[in-house]
Amino acid sequence: MIITIDGPAGSGKSTVARLLASRLRLRFLDTGAMYRAVALAVLRAGVDETDVPGVTTVARSACIEFHDHLLLLNGDDVTDAIRTPAVTAVSSVIAALPEVRARLVELQKEIGRQGSLVTEGRDQGTVVFPQAEYKFYLTASTETRARRRQRDLQDQGESMELPEVRAQLARRDHRDQNREHAPLRPADDAVLVDTSDLTIQQVVDSLVARISPKPARECHKAPPGQSKS
Ligand code: DC
Prior knowledge:
Blueprint: E1 2-6, H1 13-24, E2 27-30, H2 31-45, H3 52-61, E3 64-67, E4 70-73, E5 76-77, H4 85-94, H5 98-113, E6 117-121, H6 124-128, E7 134-139, H7 142-155, H8 162-178, E8 191-194, H9 200-210
Parallel strand pairs: 1-6, 1-7, 2-6, 7-8
Antiparallel strand pairs: 3-4, 4-5
This protein binds 2'-deoxycytidine-5'-monophosphate.
2'-deoxycytidine-5'-monophosphate binds next to helix 2, helix 4 and helix 8.
């Protein structure tokens, strides 16, 4: 079973997807982390994010692997290093390149072929797993998303004023929604969930409620009149 959760930054999709996966005992895939890993590789290689051939070469040669809760880039644990503001900014630029997307989409499909999964990102329901059994698209008001992002930054020891957080979010939304390749949008058959006024637990509960367990095998009923009593 594949469950996709797409949506903009700050919609709560990462936390929700992680909790949903653990509740359903399914694997979890954070595809944003993969774009972040490529961005970090680009920064480490000293390649300019606008140098398309340079970024493409880095993306094609980067070895990106998940080990339990860790993300490895060329064998290095980069789980925390991919969460800096610099990586966030570059990831949204390189995510617009079709060469980068092709490489990561192929990796994501390969992970999907290995079994059931809750996967989150921007294009999971539209491009990577159009055949997914369940598709969700999480949204939230800009104000809510900006406050959540500011709190995440604080948790990482970074402080940023709310207007700056809001402006960065708006730039990223604009790039993610208006790029030519796999822009951020809900799949036609996705269930839309506005998380602005919901707790994480309420969102997870509402998703679980929509995911029906496999139908139990129909019992063969005895024809009328033959039932034992
Ligand atoms: O979800 P995130 O903030 O970790 O994502 C980092 C960037 O990667 C973001 O700008 C959007 C991009 N991204 C994407 O284009 N497609 C995905 N499936 C996941 C993330």
